[in-house]
Model the fold of this input.
Amino acid sequence: MPFETCVVETIQRTPDIKSIRFEKPQGFRYLAGQYIFITLGDGPEKMEKHFTLSSSPTEGFLEITKRLTGHPFSNALAGLNSGDKVSIRGPYGDFTFQAEYDKVGMLSGGIGITPLRSMIKYSIDKGLNPSIILLYSNRLDSDIAFRDELEGMQREKNGIKVIETITRPEPEWKGVTGRINAEMVKKFMPDYMERTFYTSGPPKMVDAMLSLLRELRVPEEQIKKENFYGYD
Ligand SMILES: Cc1cc2nc3c(=O)[nH]c(=O)nc-3n(C[C@H](O)[C@H](O)[C@H](O)COP(=O)(O)OP(=O)(O)OC[C@H]3O[C@@H](n4cnc5c(N)ncnc54)[C@H](O)[C@@H]3O)c2cc1C
Done:
């Protein structure tokens, strides 16, 4: 369903990740993890791209979160201010979570966090009790989007565990380091064969996670993925 809405707030999450919040039209329904299309501009300048909703259906606004690339669409999106109008189509996609699984493993890096943030927030707001373990990889600790919120959700809810791993750690980083690998999954999710996995992000990241899960012999039917085509 196409509709027009307007920006209500923008939030700089990290130096190169920004969230844009839109008014949620009455009656607009979606599932945690789904995406929308956003159209900017008019005529030959018209551009449309996919964006996962990083907001949860339980929240009173629609939020998308964009990795800023310096390219035309990215600049136009980053330049939006409160009150600006945009055209949206959606929701779409079956990379969703409605607490169908008791044990979930989430593997992601960088901007791939957007649907997973929506799912974790949904689970908490609905008072659901699945065990969710998120392995979240970034280059620097300053690149971790939603860091305070994710760490807060972990404190708030016993079943939520967030493990951040950094590939280029500063000396003061005391946490996990390196890319997500099979050893990390075994260590932080010893019951990984019982978990349903969600992995999302740029195709290279998703492919690496799929290889890792296959190496661990996790059955295909326990793996859900969302490729952010458009990023290399
Ligand atoms: C289902 C789905 C969900 C998605 N969800 C999100 C989301 O939540 N957040 C998000 O940020 N994105 C998401 N995306 C990706 C999004 O739709 C865009 O493709 C992405 O944000 C890149 O758009 P852009 O305009 O910034 O960059 P583009 O201009 O489209 O460039 C994309 C990449 O191509 C390369 N490139 C393009 N032009 C050049 C050039 N001239 N020189 C060198 N390299 C170039 C660059 O490496 C660049 O990173 C999603 C995609 C899908 C399919």
Observations:
- Residues 133 and 227 are 20 Å apart (CA to CA).
- The pocket of flavin-adenine dinucleotide is lined by residues 35, 49-52, 64-67, 69, 71, 73-74, 111, 114, 226, 228-232 (CB under 6 Å).
- The helical segments are 72-78, 113-125, 147-156, 182-188, 203-215.
- The two ends are 29 Å apart (CA to CA).
